[in-house]
Amino acid sequence: MRRRSPFDQGFPVERGAVIGQDVCLVEQVTGRVGYGGAALHGAASGALPGALIGWIFGLLNWLDPVVSGLLLALYGLVFGALVGALPGLLVHAAQRGRRDFASVSFMQPSRYDVVADDAVADEAVRLLAELPGGTGTGTSSGAWKGSSPRSGPAVT
After folding, report:
1. Does pTM surpass 0.90?
2. What are all long-range contacts of 35-41, with beta carbons under 8 Å and residues at least 24 apart?
3. Given CB 3.0 to 4.6 Å as the disulfide criterion, which of 41, 72, 106, 151 pairs with 58?
4. Are strands 148-149 and 101-116 parallel, antiparallel or unpaired?
């Protein structure tokens, strides 16, 4: 059975905001990258622009734009992949193993503040207190007036 969130209970979400505080950048390492991976990544980066440019030039042919568009898109894909693989290899070799890993970056806040309009603040406190692990402590009336938050206590 799925837990119901406050948003499922008809709460006017347009009158509240969730604010991430103390945001830090987290870089999750996903694996090593060798010369083959660098060349493959560079080839993928060059293939799409090459195909698009070839397709556009092919559409400018007055006699048979569909066939020439597809043919030039294929040539552009191959040429773009070859031209993209070369800088990928060169950049990887120039770094000499200092950055030979692949990673995914994301931002992660250390805590969240929930602020709500004065008219719905009491209902927000009640709904947050009903959540599993929700205490509803540290709350006060809403801190949001108009279209932007103002300083003051927040519903946490």
Report:
1. no
2. 35/89, 35/92, 35/93, 37/102, 38/88, 38/89, 38/91, 38/92, 39/85, 39/88, 39/89, 39/92, 40/85, 40/88, 41/88
3. 72
4. unpaired
- Cα of first residue to Cα of last residue in the chain, in angstroms, is 26
Give the rounded percent of residues in the chain with a pLDDT score beyond 90: 21
Q: Which of 23-27, 129-133, 137-141 has the lowest mean pLDDT?
A: 137-141
Give how far Cα 128 sits from Cα of 11, 92, 96, 115, Å.
Answer: 11, 50, 52, 12
Q: Which backbone phi and psi does 18 adopt, to 5 degrees?
A: -110, 125
Q: Are 137 and 119 in contact (CB under 8 A)?
A: no
What confidence tens digit (pLDDT) does each residue in 53-110 have? 988 888 887 777 778 888 889 999 999 999 999 998 888 888 887 777 888 899 999 8
- As to burial, measured by CB atoms within 10 angstroms (0-12 exposed, 13-18 middle, 19+ buried), residue 32 is exposed
How many CB atoms are located within 10 Å of the residue 41 CB?
A: 18
- Packing angle between helix 35-59 and helix 65-95, nearest 10 degrees? 150
